[in-house]
Amino acid sequence: MRILILLGPPGAGKGTQAKEIAARHGLIQLSTGDMLRAAVKVGSPVGRKAKAMMDKGELVPDAIVIKIICDRLEEPDCRRGAILDGFPRNLAQAAALDNVLADKRKKVNAVIELRVDDEELIKRIAGRFTCSRCGEGYNDASKRPKAEGVCDVCGSTTFTRRPDDNAQTMRTRLMVYYRETSPLIGYYFCKGNLRTVDGMAPIANVGREIDKVLGEIKESK
Ligand code: AMP
């Protein structure tokens, strides 16, 4: 089992890169944000508890997300490994993940930090939207559908914007990132598995950089 973590503020490109890396490396993408949004959509007890925090841009309680991710890692499709996108989000979650992996005699193999300027993050988040049918991601500024209003991938004409992708909530999310999540950069640096990639580069270049890092890690093992 290989465990990779993508670390970075909202809008850094974690979801986009995680999806592509997962496909290229035969890993499962685990996004706690996606899982929580799915729970909110079906109105499950977890979804009902999480919704208010998500709407405000605050973190959902650790116990909820730790359980979601630990249960998911037990499923057979994660046997080869997973790429975690949006988890861990604070030191308590990182410690819980280390403990769960230690029980399986595993550990986090690599943490890739995507670094992007704050102003660019705000711009990216304000412009992003996804196809309602297949989930393909777009952006008003950098990636519009080739035919206006039609998804490039599945041809659907309905798109959605996340309710927490607005300027006000975005600033809270960024603040939460600096307060709660950015200490993980030091945590993983000290453990020796942090690698930093320039997230300002075009999507394909960022993907190539990440592949290079993953290749180097594999060779050095
Ligand atoms: P994301 O899609 O990763 O931007 O997450 C959207 C929202 O889900 C966040 O603003 C949090 O409210 C919640 N969330 C996602 N992952 C976590 C996590 N690991 N810990 C706590 N809350 C989370």
Could you provide a short overview of the structure?
The chain is of the alpha/beta class. The protein contains nine helices and eight strands.
Protein architecture, described:
- With 221 residues, this protein is α/β, with parallel strands linked by helices.
- The protein has helices spanning 14-25, 32-42, 45-56, 62-73, 91-103, 118-127, 167-181, 183-191, 203-219; strands at residues 2-7, 28-31, 81-85, 108-115, 128-131, 137-139, 159-160, 194-198.
- The strands form 2 sheets. The protein has a 5-stranded parallel β-sheet with strand order 2-3-1-4-8, with helices on both faces. A 3-stranded antiparallel β-sheet has the order 6-5-7.
- The longest helix is centred in the last third of the chain and has 17 residues, at 203-219.
- The model has no long low-confidence stretch (mean pLDDT 93).
- Adenosine monophosphate binds at residues 10, 32-33, 36, 53-54, 57-60, 65, 86-87, 89, 93, 164, 173.
